[in-house]
Amino acid sequence: MWVSVILAITCIGLGTTGAQVISPTLKVEPTDVLFDPGSSTTSVSFQCSATGDPAPEYVWYKEYVDLDTITRQPLYQTSGGTLTIPAPKASDQGRYWCQAFNEYGRVVSVGANLTFAYVNDFDPAQRTGATTTSGNGTLLPCSPPGAYPGLVYHWIEAGKTAFIPNDVRKYASQNNGDYYFANVSPDDNGLYQCGVKINLNTDDATAPVTGGFSEFSPETPLTVTAASPVPTSPPQLVLFETIQYKRRGDNVLMEFFAYGNPTPTLDWRRVDAVGGNAMEFPASVKYEQWKRAMTLTNVAVADQGFYEVTATNTLGTDVKTAQLVIEDVPQYIKKLETQNLDQAPGEDVNLEVTWKDDGRNTVTPSWYYNGVDIVPDDKYIVTNSPAASSLTVKNAQPADAGSYQSILQNQYGMVPSFSEVRVGAPSKVTDLKLVEKGDNSATIAWSEPPTKANLDGYQIQYNPTDSPDSKQYMDVGKTPTQATIPNSNPDISTYRVRAKTVDGIYGPYSDPLVNGVVTPIGDGRTATDTPRTAGGGGVPLLAWLLPLLLLLLPLLLLLLFCCCCKGWCAGKKKEKAIGKGTALANLTPMSRVHQEMLRTYRTTIVDNMKAPGKVTTRMANEKVINANMVQAIASHPVRQDKSKKLLDSMVLGGDKSFDSFCGGLRKDEKLDWLADTLEGQGLSMDNRKRLEAHKQLLVNKMDPESTLTSLTQNQIYSNDMAEYCMSANSTEEQNKRILHLMQSRSDEDFSIFCSGLRANGQQAHIADLLQVQSNLDSATTQGTGEKQLPRTGEGIDMTKKEVIMEDEFVKKEGMSLNQSGVGFGLGAAGVGLGTATAAAGGLAAAKGGLGTGGAQLTTNGGLGTGGAQLTTQSTSASGMRSAGTFGTDLGLGSAAGQGLDMDGSFKGRHGAVVGGGGHRYLIDATAPQGSLMSASSTVVPPGQPVILEVRGEVDQVEWLYNGGSIRGDPGISTHSDGFLHELHIDRMSPERDGTYTCRGETPDGGAVACDIKVQTLI
C-alpha cells in the first residue's frame, strides 16, 4: 500500500509543474537611495521588477502621487521597471514606490526613500574648552553639526593642516567626535579644532566613504596646569556602550575609553550574562590598535549577547558590559507564494501567512487586493494572532480574481508576499501543436482545458518571433479546438492560445508554439528560448524513470514520515507560540488612516518635537509601548533620532498608541496644532494630486489671511492650526503650511477650501484650476478606463456634471440642465435675463436692452452649441461710463443643442470656451459683484495651440500681455479686420501663462477692453 501511495505521489510530482502564476509577482523592489549633492553623480535610480504573463507594466509614485502627473525638468525617465531621476534636487526627496500590473492583477511594492546627504555648519559661538592639571583625564567636545547619514571625525591643532593621529593616550570617538585624553600633560596645551566630513557609508563598522563636505569647528582651548608630583588615578571608563539594537546583517561599532594615570589598557570578553562565563567571539570581530573600538560585520542573531570590557592599570580596574540585541524585519514561515488558488464561483477564498514570533517586536500584517489595501468587512474577513494572519474572501466571484498580497511590518521594515486567485477561470491550454502549414498560413490545434465555468471560445495570440511587440489576436469558437491563422508563416512565428468563459474570464496562455516547436515556459525562460530535450542526450524518459523511482523509494518513505511528524510538531509549536503571546492577543493594528497621517507628517513631527523623552514616558505609563521600545528610544543621543524611533515603535501599538501620542503632543509638547492635524481624516489620492499639481501656483498666488479665515470659520482648521500657519516668516511659507496641513483634511473640507478661494475674486481662478482638474480626471477614454482630456469634437457633458457649479449657486439662481437645445443669455451683475435660443454654434440674443454707446465684443471658441451675452462697463472719451456687451459662446456638450435654462438674475459668474487646436476647454471665472465681467480664464494642456477671438466694431485694436505690449514672440501673432480680432498662440507653455487683453476704441470714442486669462495645465 505504501509503495502505491509513494508511486502515485511521485508520478503526480513528475507529471505537473504546478499552477502557472500569470498575475504579477514582484521579484525586485525599490531600496533606499542616498544622494550626495557634492558628488559628480548626475542621476539616481530605483528598481522594480516583476514576473507575470503577459509581462507586467509599471507605474511609479512619489508618496501617493502618480509621477505621470508631476511636471519636473528634466523629466522623470522610466524604462521597464527602472525609474531614473536625472539631476536630483532637494524637492525630489521623499518616498517612491511602484505598482506592477497586467490584465490579471496588480501588486504594490514597499516604499523606498530618496534622501540627500548633508552637513550643516558648526555653531560659530566661541568655545570655553577645558582646563585641568597634569595627570587628569579630560575630553574636548566636538559638538558636531547636524548631518546625514553620518560623519567622520578628525582633530587638528589650530593653524596646522595635519590630522592628529590617535595614540595610546588619545582617542577621537567615531560615534560622537569627542576627543578623549586618558591623562594630560603640559605638552597638550593648545588650541584644537574638530573636523568633520560626511560619511556616506551607513554601516558603522566599515571603512567610511566620505563625500564632498568638510567643516571645522571653532577653536577649542585645552589648558593644562603642571602639577608636581603628577597625580595618579585608577581606571574610569567614561566612554562605553550600554545597549545597541541592530538589524541582522548590519555592522556594529562598540567604543570604550578610560581615564587613568598610568594609561589603562583594555581587554574584551564575550559573556553569557553580566559578570558571567566567557563565550567565543564571532569570527568577524576586529579591534582598533589599542582596543578602544571593536567592530563586528554582517551580524547574525547568534552574535547577540553581552560584551564586557575591563580597563586596567597598576591602581585597579573598571568593568562595563554592553548588550547587543539583533533585530530584523519580519520573517515569514508560511508565505502566500505557495497559495495560488483556482476557485469556482461561490466558494470562499482562504489565504494565510505565519511568521516568527520573537516575543519582542510586534508584527502588523496588512492585506492588499490588486494593489489596494483591504478593509475588513462582511466580504473580507481578517483574523490576526501574534504569529499568524488569515484572509477569507466570502462567496468569491470572477470580479474577486486577481493579485492578493500580504505585507508584514515591524519597526525595522516591511516584507511582502504574493498570491494569485482565479475564480471561474479556465485552466491553461495544453497540447498546442502545428497540424498544417500552408503557403502563408498555419493551422494549429490544442486540447480543451479543464474549467470552473462554461467555455465561450478561445483567443489566439500570434506575432513574428523576432518581433514580439507586433502581436495580433484572433478569436475563435469553442469547437473545434483548432484554427487556421491566415497571413502567417509558422516557420518564423510564435502562437499562443487561451480559453475564455461565457462570463468573459480568460485563463492563462498556453506554452508558446515557436517556429513550429512548443517551448515550455518556466525556470525564468522566455517564449523565444530553445526547447529542452527530454531525458538528456535523447534517452527515453521511461528508460531512467523506473530505476530512479526504485532508488528513491527508501528516501521517499523517510520524507513522508518526516512530513507527518513535522506537521504534528508544527501544530504543537504554533499552539505554543500563540499561547506565549496571549498578552498581545487583543492588540489591533493601527488604522490605515492613522498610519497614513504619521507617514505624511513624519518630518513635521520630527522637526517640531522638543521633548520626545517626555512623550515616550507618557506612552510607556499608558502601556502602549513596552520597556524594550523605551530603551531603544532612549539609546539615541540625538533628539530627532529619538522622535524617529518613537514614531517607528508606536505604529505597533495600534490606535491606542496614536491617541496617547496625540495626547503627549498636546500636554507635553504644547503642539495642539500638530495633534489637530494628525487627527484628520486625510484627503483622497485624487485631491492630493490636485494640490500637488498646482502647489507652486497656490504658494505664489493664494492669500493666506483670507484663506485661513475661511478655514477657521468653517471649522476646517482649528485656531491653533491657523496660528501655526500664520507664524511663518513669509507669505510663501504661510501658504506652504496651509497646503501641507490641508492633506490631513477630508474631501468635503477640500471643497470648502476651494469655495473659500473662490470667495476672493483675485484667486477664484485657482479654485477653478483645482476643480477643472477634477473634471479632467473624470474624463475617460472609451473602453480603457485611462483618464484623458476630452477628445477633439467633444464638449463638456452637462448630464455628467462636468461643469463646475456650486450647488448653492444653482439653487439661488434657478439654473437647471435641459436637453432642449436652448442657449442662454447673461447680463451684467443684477440684470435679469430671459431664455435665449440659438442654433448649434450660433450666438444667442439676450432679452433686455443693451446700454447705449457700447461696443459688442465676443470671445468665441467657434465650437459652442449655444451663445451668451455679457454686459460689462466701458468708458467713453468724455469719461462717462457707458454699458457695453460682450458675447461669449459656451460649448456645453458633445451633442449639438444641449444648453442651460436660466431664470432670474445672474451675478458675477460666467463661462466660456476658448478654441485651441480643435479642442474645447471649459473656462469658469468668478468676479466680485459689480466688477467688470470681461475676465475669462481657461486651462490648456501644454503644447496645444490656442486662438483667442474678440468680436465687435472697434478701432485701434491692440493686444496686451499682463498689461504690457505683446512680447516679440514669433509663436504669437495677432489679426484684426475691424470686427473680428484674433490672437494666435502656436503652442501653450507655462512661460506664456497670463492675462491677454484686447483693447480698442468704439465708434463713439469710448474705450473698451476684454481680458482673457490663459493657464497651462501642469
From TrEMBL:
<keyword id="KW-0812">Transmembrane</keyword>
<keyword id="KW-1133">Transmembrane helix</keyword>
<keyword id="KW-0732">Signal</keyword>
<dbReference type="InterPro" id="IPR036116">
    <property type="entry name" value="FN3_sf"/>
</dbReference>
<feature type="domain" description="Ig-like">
    <location>
        <begin position="928"/>
        <end position="1015"/>
    </location>
</feature>
<dbReference type="GO" id="GO:0005886">
    <property type="term" value="C:plasma membrane"/>
</dbReference>
<dbReference type="InterPro" id="IPR013783">
    <property type="entry name" value="Ig-like_fold"/>
</dbReference>
<dbReference type="Pfam" id="PF00619">
    <property type="entry name" value="CARD"/>
</dbReference>
<dbReference type="Pfam" id="PF07679">
    <property type="entry name" value="I-set"/>
</dbReference>
<dbReference type="GO" id="GO:0007156">
    <property type="term" value="P:homophilic cell adhesion via plasma membrane adhesion molecules"/>
</dbReference>
<keyword id="KW-0393">Immunoglobulin domain</keyword>
<keyword id="KW-0472">Membrane</keyword>
<protein>
    <submittedName>
        <fullName>CNTN5 protein</fullName>
    </submittedName>
</protein>
<dbReference type="InterPro" id="IPR013098">
    <property type="entry name" value="Ig_I-set"/>
</dbReference>
<dbReference type="InterPro" id="IPR036179">
    <property type="entry name" value="Ig-like_dom_sf"/>
</dbReference>
<dbReference type="Pfam" id="PF13927">
    <property type="entry name" value="Ig_3"/>
</dbReference>
<dbReference type="InterPro" id="IPR050958">
    <property type="entry name" value="Cell_Adh-Cytoskel_Orgn"/>
</dbReference>
<feature type="domain" description="Ig-like">
    <location>
        <begin position="124"/>
        <end position="210"/>
    </location>
</feature>
<feature type="domain" description="CARD">
    <location>
        <begin position="590"/>
        <end position="667"/>
    </location>
</feature>
<dbReference type="Pfam" id="PF00041">
    <property type="entry name" value="fn3"/>
</dbReference>
<dbReference type="GO" id="GO:0043025">
    <property type="term" value="C:neuronal cell body"/>
</dbReference>
<dbReference type="InterPro" id="IPR003598">
    <property type="entry name" value="Ig_sub2"/>
</dbReference>
<feature type="domain" description="Ig-like">
    <location>
        <begin position="24"/>
        <end position="109"/>
    </location>
</feature>
<dbReference type="GO" id="GO:0030424">
    <property type="term" value="C:axon"/>
</dbReference>
<feature type="domain" description="Fibronectin type-III">
    <location>
        <begin position="425"/>
        <end position="522"/>
    </location>
</feature>
<dbReference type="InterPro" id="IPR001315">
    <property type="entry name" value="CARD"/>
</dbReference>
<dbReference type="InterPro" id="IPR007110">
    <property type="entry name" value="Ig-like_dom"/>
</dbReference>
<dbReference type="GO" id="GO:0042981">
    <property type="term" value="P:regulation of apoptotic process"/>
</dbReference>
<dbReference type="InterPro" id="IPR003961">
    <property type="entry name" value="FN3_dom"/>
</dbReference>
<dbReference type="GO" id="GO:0050808">
    <property type="term" value="P:synapse organization"/>
</dbReference>
<dbReference type="InterPro" id="IPR003599">
    <property type="entry name" value="Ig_sub"/>
</dbReference>
<feature type="signal peptide">
    <location>
        <begin position="1"/>
        <end position="19"/>
    </location>
</feature>
<keyword id="KW-0677">Repeat</keyword>
<dbReference type="GO" id="GO:0008046">
    <property type="term" value="F:axon guidance receptor activity"/>
</dbReference>
<feature type="transmembrane region" description="Helical">
    <location>
        <begin position="541"/>
        <end position="564"/>
    </location>
</feature>
<feature type="domain" description="CARD">
    <location>
        <begin position="683"/>
        <end position="773"/>
    </location>
</feature>
<dbReference type="InterPro" id="IPR011029">
    <property type="entry name" value="DEATH-like_dom_sf"/>
</dbReference>
<feature type="domain" description="Ig-like">
    <location>
        <begin position="330"/>
        <end position="422"/>
    </location>
</feature>
